[in-house]
Design brief:
2 domains, alpha+beta
Length: 436
């Protein structure tokens, strides 16, 4: 099938769908269109960013397969609801995709979208939920609806990442203009360009090379494809799910403890960074307010990685040295996974704030493991985890050319792998200043 993912999305997201969606969640159809353009772009950008992560691609492929296999599916939501069960694999897969791609950034993405569109968080969360099964369905349809593998998804993204970036502007025009014509009561226009660049930036930041793709005629343009009724019904459970998610995401977080950089059990090697002369990560002490250049400040531990980085940056006698690394002390991963824990967000946000305050600074993230298990698997895990940290920093608004990442596996241990304590110290993630 030659039709691209973007063209399939154009066929899915019709004026009828958007006006119905807007009516269901209480916003104008063109606002729903701008929101979906932005969120679809962010999903596609996240997929491009993570296309090198085999585990992540395999997970997304399985989610797309679950949408394709769902016999009640997105095309029979109304019939399913008649049976009193307001959930389908499309809904569940979409929610899992959100957690997989956005992780700790999900709440801030929902909030930013709500602010940009001038809508409430529940409506924004509903759009967020709707965008996920749309993208999964488009991927499944693009590959003919058959069983999708992680390798096939990676290949597809490699082929279409240029088209994804160049096609977002046309997707915005395709969505917003017809909706405004079809819904005279809609609010006064906010420029279509307000949506497209934001969405395109998510993809552009993820790819260094973006060859414009030739635009194919939309294979489904002008047809509802049965999705209007389906997604209108889908939004009923999604609105409720969105409200629950918003409440959960905005619960005041417990103050994160100050663990050692290697906070995981020995059974699961954690991402570990490049070695430092004194690379052992000690528990961070009491927190304090630290001033940054430009008048901003952050809350960080007095002996935490943020304090050490700032001291290094401000010390005129500290020269750039690739062997000097600072260990993260509040950054951890889910056991045996490349997914950052929610508690890690505070430290990543601080690193983003530091990089914003010192625009000349460039950094490298290093990942390390202990020597338990297969060396190649450890190397892959450490690289994927370092990359996840890099992606989280870039997602916070830092230019991609200011952050790099590398995994070193079980090389350069800083302690004895024969003991549990030593293995815990060797499982770490670190940061090195490469320019200031």
């Amino acid at each position: 099938m030659s039709t691209s993912v973007i063209e399939i999305l154009k066929g899915f997201i019709t004026p009828n769908l958007l006006n119905g969606v807007g009516s269901a969640i209480g916003i104008p159809g063109d606002v729903a269109g701008r929101g979906l353009t932005d969120l679809v772009g962010q999903y596609l950008g996240a997929l491009v960013q993570q296309s090198g992560d085999r585990d992540a691609m395999a997970h997304v492929a399985e989610l797309a397969n679950s949408v394709s296999r769902d016999t009640s599916g997105i095309n029979d939501i109304k019939g399913l609801l008649a049976g009193g069960i307001p959930s389908t694999m499309a809904v569940l897969a979409g929610n899992r995709l959100m957690g997989s791609l956005f992780g700790v950034w999900q709440a801030s993405t929902v909030h930013k979208t709500a602010g940009a569109l001038g809508i409430g968080p529940v409506a924004s969360s509903s759009l967020f939920n709707l965008a996920a099964p749309l993208v999964l369905s488009a991927i499944s349809k693009r590959l003919g609806g058959g069983a999708l593998t992680g390798a096939a998804l990676t290949a597809l993204i490699g082929q279409e990442k240029g088209a994804m970036m160049s096609g977002l502007s046309s997707l915005a025009a395709n969505i917003v203009s017809p909706v405004k014509a079809a819904a005279p009561a809609a609010v006064a226009p906010a420029a279509v360009a307000a949506a497209a660049p934001v969405a395109a930036a998510a993809v552009k930041a993820a790819t260094r090379t973006a060859a414009p793709a030739a635009a194919a005629a939309p294979a489904y343009a002008g047809r509802d494809n049965g999705l209007f009724t389906s997604f209108l019904w889908l939004l009923l459970p999604l609105a409720f799910i969105g409200w629950l998610a918003w409440q959960k995401l905005n619960e005041p977080p417990a103050e994160p403890p100050a663990p050692a950089a290697a906070a995981e059990p020995a059974a699961a090697p954690a991402a570990a960074p490049a070695p430092a002369a004194a690379a052992r990560s000690e528990p961070a002490a009491g927190f304090t307010r630290i001033g940054l250049a430009g008048g901003t400040d952050i809350d960080a531990a007095t002996d935490g990685v943020e304090s050490k980085i700032i001291a290094f940056i401000n010390d005129p006698g500290a020269v750039i040295d690739k062997t000097v690394w600072f260990n993260f002390d509040r950054l951890t991963f889910e056991t045996g996974s490349t997914s950052l824990t929610t508690e890690s967000k505070a430290q990543i946000d601080n690193i983003v704030a530091i990089l914003n305050a010192y625009p000349a600074v460039k950094i490298k993230i290093g990942g390390y493991t202990d020597n338990v298990g297969d060396p190649q698997a450890n190397l892959d895990l450490s690289g994927n985890r370092a990359t996840k940290v890099m992606q989280a920093i870039v997602a916070g608004g830092i230019a991609a050319d200011r952050v790099e990442a590398e995994g070193y596996g079980d090389q350069f241990p800083v302690a004895d792998n024969a003991t549990e304590e030593g293995r815990a110290q060797n499982r770490r993630t670190s940061v090195s200043i490469r320019a200031k």
